[in-house]
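Need a sequence for this fold. Nothing fancy.
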């Protein structure tokens, strides 16, 4: 009878263990649920609690979520509300996303105290701010303008844009304390062909309630703290504006040639900004005759320039614009919308000019047969090229990556000897808005030539244009295909830009 008794004892013991484990699990779950109710968070020193709150707020994955989290922290308890509102650094990064009169955002401004303000004001596709709404906002911001560190403006219509320029000009002339802005961006997102006083589609455009349409930047007052300057679809009185010196970023876009800074002023900006790291010129640059502008001028050395963007220039202007400076350490080059004209002289001038390029962006750019040898030589002069961003391209320019620069023969057709392929380090591609068959042909050819693309970041919209056969072909010819929302920097981009 003893064996049966032992079996019952073992079974009873096993059931007791299971019951104990179940109770332990229930206790653990209950503990996790009530942990923050039992944790004595109100006993933490204020400086520790402030650090915890900062970690929460600044880890938000997007600005809208960051706004919501800041608000929710003030709803938990009186103690947390006091801790959050007392920390001005939680409220100084403000994106005006609420509707006029912007009560929530202006409350953030008040909570920020005298800490440096980072402001972003922009309307949306569905909601364009009126001139009256923007003027009321600017009036509310005037007492805080002297401690604005970053100001980013994106508005569709001319009237509110002019109000912003007038506001900054008036404050620069009369305001006290002085401005201490480090970054300034102003973007007019509306029609790029509409300008005050000019005729568009048979009608002259005159901004409503704005007799003056050109203002001096900051009223002519120099702001020594200013390091980043962006002007997009807007113009200023360059003659009476302050000097822009010691910049690390200069970004000019969509400005008619006659409204751009005169060449001497443009050269002054470059020569007085030896630490410039990013230069972006998109349909804007120095005004004047592009064929005569560079006569009797020596090139300005920009040894710290790492990022260069050239976009939307007529062919005669492209070579001229690059001749104004030398930048031997550029790592990231962007060329956009160079098509429809003969850019052969530009590519010829670029040969050997930027030998340290690691990232190359080509958007809406073509390569007619007449300039193919020149483009091949240009690409061959960038031996460190590792990462390419490609969009809206035809096969003519992709074909250049399949040539042996020594023989000027396409590698796939060169059966006489072992070929040397162009851009041997190129192994990461970011692609969007390209015909599937063109991209598949390019990817397959690179692998057949012996130097395959290892990783591709493809925009979600482009993936939807592939049929299953082509998509399978792509997956067979690259090691990794990542479907992403194109926009932010990838891990490989960050690593290449941070390399010495």
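Here you go.
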């Amino acid at each position: 009878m003893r064996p049966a008794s032992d079996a019952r004892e073992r079974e009873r013991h096993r059931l007791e263990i299971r019951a104990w484990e179940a109770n332990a699990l229930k206790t653990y779950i209950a503990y996790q649920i009530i942990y923050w109710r039992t944790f004595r968070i109100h006993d933490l020193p204020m400086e520790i609690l402030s650090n915890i709150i900062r970690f929460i707020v600044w880890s938000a994955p997007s600005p809208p979520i960051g706004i919501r989290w800041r608000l929710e922290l003030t709803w938990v308890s009186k103690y947390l509300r006091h801790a959050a509102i007392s920390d001005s650094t939680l409220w100084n990064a403000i994106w005006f996303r609420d509707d006029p009169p912007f009560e929530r955002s202006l409350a953030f401004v008040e909570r920020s105290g005298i800490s440096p303000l980072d402001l972003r004001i922009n309307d949306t596709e569905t909601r364009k701010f009126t001139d009256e709404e923007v003027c009321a906002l600017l009036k509310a911001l005037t007492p805080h303008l002297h401690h604005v560190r970053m100001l980013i403006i994106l508005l569709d219509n001319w009237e509110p844009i002019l109000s912003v320029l007038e506001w900054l000009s008036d404050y620069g002339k009369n305001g006290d304390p002085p401005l201490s802005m480090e970054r300034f961006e102003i973007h007019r997102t509306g029609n790029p062909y509409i300008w005050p006083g000019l005729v568009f589609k048979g009608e002259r455009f005159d901004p409503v309630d704005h007799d003056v349409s050109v203002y001096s930047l900051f009223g002519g007052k120099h702001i020594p703290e200013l390091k980043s300057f962006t002007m997009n679809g807007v113009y200023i009185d360059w003659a009476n504006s302050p000097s822009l010196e010691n910049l690390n970023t200069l970004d000019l876009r969509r400005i008619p040639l006659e409204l751009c800074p005169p060449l001497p002023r443009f050269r002054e900006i470059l020569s007085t900004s030896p630490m410039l790291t990013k230069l972006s010129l998109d349909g804007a640059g120095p005004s004047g005759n592009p064929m005569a502008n560079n006569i009797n001028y020596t090139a300005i050395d920009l040894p710290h320039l790492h990022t260069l963007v050239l976009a939307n220039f007529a062919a005669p202007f492209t070579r001229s614009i690059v001749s104004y400076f030398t930048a031997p350490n550029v790592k990231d080059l962007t060329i956009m919308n160079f098509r429809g004209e003969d850019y052969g002289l530009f590519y010829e001038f670029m040969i050997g000019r930027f030998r340290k390029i690691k990232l190359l962006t080509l958007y809406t750019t073509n390569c007619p047969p007449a300039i193919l040898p020149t483009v091949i030589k240009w690409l061959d002069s960038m031996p460190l090229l590792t990462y390419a961003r490609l969009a809206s391209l035809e096969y003519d320019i992709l074909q250049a990556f399949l040539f042996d620069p020594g023989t000027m023969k396409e590698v796939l057709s060169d059966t006489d000897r072992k070929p040397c392929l162009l851009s041997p380090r190129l192994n990461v591609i970011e692609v969007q808005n390209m015909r599937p068959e063109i991209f598949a042909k390019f990817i397959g050819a690179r692998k057949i030539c012996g130097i395959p693309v290892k990783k591709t970041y493809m925009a979600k919209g482009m993936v939807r244009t592939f049929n299953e056969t082509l998509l399978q072909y792509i997956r067979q010819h690259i090691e990794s295909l990542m479907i992403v929302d194109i926009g932010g920097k990838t891990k490989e981009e960050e690593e290449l830009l941070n390399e010495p």
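For context: The chain is about 35% helix and 15% strand.
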